[in-house]
Design brief:
alpha/beta; three-stranded mixed beta sheet; three-stranded parallel beta sheet; 7 helices; 173 residues; binds FE2/S2 (inorganic) cluster; 19% strand; single chain
Length: 173
């Protein structure tokens, strides 16, 4: 989720913070808004899962945290990545805020579909989040819960593709 992090960068800069941004993507072609992030940040690092652009993976963060002091870390993106970043920042005691984007049904804390365990308490992404303490979040439970919907997501994706997909024309090759 690169796009929403730009709003965080902007807000932090406007509040007078020194902002170091790390943009991550699966592959080089998926890296977006790098120029915009660079203009807004005091320092920018880029990384890809396959190493096709910038650093390969997140290991470089361990070296970065050894060299520089950070007061806060804000992470947005896939749950597994947010878990990994939270594990990296934890030994350094850097408060780490994750942003969850779970499936939601009622958005009122009643259906329970977006629930997450944080610090041993059951909370809801819709009414208690979307931001949570990454060091207190039960990521293993969260990942398990995400996987419960995988068959339905795959079916939905297949139905969408076989129906001709998006009609707006933007996704045509
Ligand atoms: S969407 Fe139903 S409890 Fe959050």
């Amino acid at each position: 989720m690169i796009a929403p992090i730009l709003l965080q960068i902007k807000a932090m800069k406007e509040a007078g913070n020194h902002v170091t941004t790390v943009l991550g993507a699966r592959i080089k072609e998926a890296m977006i808004l790098e120029k915009e992030a660079k203009e807004m940040s005091d320092a920018l690092y880029v990384a890809t899962d396959d190493g096709s652009y910038g650093y390969k993976g997140l290991d470089f963060l361990k070296e970065l945290l050894k060299k520089e002091k950070f007061d806060r870390c804000v992470v947005m993106g896939p749950v597994v990545m947010m878990r990994d970043v939270s594990e990296i920042t934890k030994p350094y005691g850097i408060p780490t805020i994750i942003t969850l984007t779970p499936v939601m049904i009622d958005g009122m804390g009643m259906c329970g579909v977006c629930r997450v365990t944080v610090g041993g308490k059951m909370l809801f992404g819709c009414v208690d989040g979307p931001e949570f303490d990454g060091h207190l979040t039960d990521f293993e439970e969260l990942i398990q819960r995400q996987r419960q919907m995988l068959p339905e997501e795959r079916l939905s994706s297949l139905l969408w593709e076989t129906s001709g997909g998006c009609k707006c024309g933007r996704n045509k090759a």
